[in-house]
Amino acid sequence: MDRWEEGFDAWVPSEDGGVDTGTEDERRELLRLARELGAARNAAREPVVAVELEPLKQTLRRAIEAIAAYRNGLAELRLGLEAELAAAQAERELAAAEREHLDERERTIHDVEKELASLRVALEAQRLELEARERALDDRPSFSEGLAELSPASKRTPAT
């Protein structure tokens, strides 16, 4: 049996729950050696990690620059789209104003056409009335015929 195994078999906890001081010293030494080994391993790996890490850092920097350029491009596109949207909105508002103006002109034209039609009907009625008056005047004897009827010579002829 090894000394280590012997110490393991011989270990008996103390009555107060403490650990045998001979084993505790070995345990502390073992933990110290483990820490030293871990520190030595980390110290040995640091140059390797630093060498491996540098290309990764460069790749990360390039990716960050690409993202920044992409964001700048997006910001420029957004500004361009906002300008186009504002221009389209202004054009739309202008078209709506023109459409309203045209609608108003159409209503005015419609009102004028109604008024003209009404006047046309009134003028046609006046024309018909004047034509009827003219016919009535044509049926009456002329001035000279009227004078002839009023003269005393015309009254004597039928008496015979």
Protein architecture, described:
Helices cover 88% and strands 0% of the residues. The protein has 160 residues and is mainly alpha-helical. The chain is rod-shaped, with a radius of gyration of 62 Å. The model has no long low-confidence stretch (mean pLDDT 83).
Biggest β-sheet strands, sense, barrel: none
Write down the overall mean pLDDT: 83
Radius of gyration: 62 Å
Distance between the termini: 193 Å
Number of strands: 0
pLDDT below 50 for ≥5 consecutive residues: which ranges?
none
Query: How many domains would you count in the coordinates?
Result: 1
What global shape is seen?
rod-shaped
Helices, by number, come to 4
Structural class: mainly alpha
Percentage beta strand: under 5%
Order of helices and strands: HHHH
**Helical content class:** over 70%
Summarize the structure.
This protein is an all-alpha fold.
What would the keywords be for this entry?
4 helices, mainly alpha, about 90% helix, about 160 residues
Element layout with pairings:
Layout: H1 3-10, H2 21-139, H3 143-150, H4 152-156
